[in-house]
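Thread amino acids onto this structure.
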């Protein structure tokens, strides 16, 4: 294992993880305000921010064949990071199914901000994943409610963002297997901002901050959380299950007393 040391302290135990960062890459090309914040795209901003951690990083976008998420790419991905907003319905059902199966088989998944409404996340959660929202340039304070969790490693009591889009409860998701962060917004709402889930062998982390008109993905603490989540999600959860017609573990003896014999 190669350890990534940032600021003199170790946060990641598996910095050699193979990471694919997926971004629909639509708003940056259609909205000048978004392009001003992320001129190279959100995916490349995240890639640059994660580079010091030593991950093997590649990116993919909606416009590529198979959205850049071919079977080969997914088979060589330990953790998939997903950002989407405007084009959820343009994502192929076939690609969604392919990713879904890979997650169940142990590929980690990090779902960012408005990707809560992606086909993939809704399929994995089995709910609408709906929520309250408001764009009002509000301050957000993201409180660490599970400081012992590895995803919170290196983070203080909270992360404060000067401006962020408000996401509020009720958030229509299953109860998280682990709740790591709770966000508070200037307007008074709270939100389950950092939620971990287990689906068969796969680990999933949903992280709320990241509205496209705010420089959230340049914030060192936000990037640290994402890096921690990559390290947490990179290892499959549990042993691979065996399905189908199975041979007996113990010797079976036929009985002569079976009715009809």
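Threaded sequence (261 positions):
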């Amino acid at each position: 294992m190669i350890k990534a040391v940032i600021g003199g302290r170790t946060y990641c135990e598996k910095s050699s993880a193979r990471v694919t960062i997926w971004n629909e890459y639509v708003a940056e090309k259609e909205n000048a305000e978004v392009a001003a914040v992320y001129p190279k795209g959100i995916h490349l901003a995240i890639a640059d921010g994660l580079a010091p951690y030593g991950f093997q990083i590649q990116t993919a976008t909606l416009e590529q064949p198979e959205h850049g998420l071919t079977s080969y790419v997914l088979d060589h991905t330990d953790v998939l990071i997903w950002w989407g907003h405007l084009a959820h319905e343009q994502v192929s059902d076939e690609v969604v199914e392919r990713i879904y199966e890979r997650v169940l088989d142990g590929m980690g998944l990090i779902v960012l901000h408005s990707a809560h409404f992606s086909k993939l996340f809704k399929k994995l959660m089995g709910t609408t994943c709906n929520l309250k929202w408001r764009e009002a340039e509000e301050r957000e304070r993201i409180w660490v409610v599970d400081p012992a969790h590895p995803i919170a490693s290196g983070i203080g009591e909270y992360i404060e963002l000067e401006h962020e889009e408000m996401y509020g409860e009720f958030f229509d998701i299953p109860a998280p297997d682990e709740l790591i962060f709770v966000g508070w917004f200037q307007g008074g709402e709270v939100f389950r901002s950092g939620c971990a889930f287990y689906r068969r062998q796969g680990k999933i982390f949903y992280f709320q901050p990241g509205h496209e008109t705010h420089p959230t993905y340049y914030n060192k603490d936000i990037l640290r959380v994402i890096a921690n989540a990559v390290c947490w999600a990179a290892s499959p959860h549990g042993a691979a299950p065996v399905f189908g017609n199975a041979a007996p573990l113990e010797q079976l003896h036929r009985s002569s007393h079976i009715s009809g014999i």
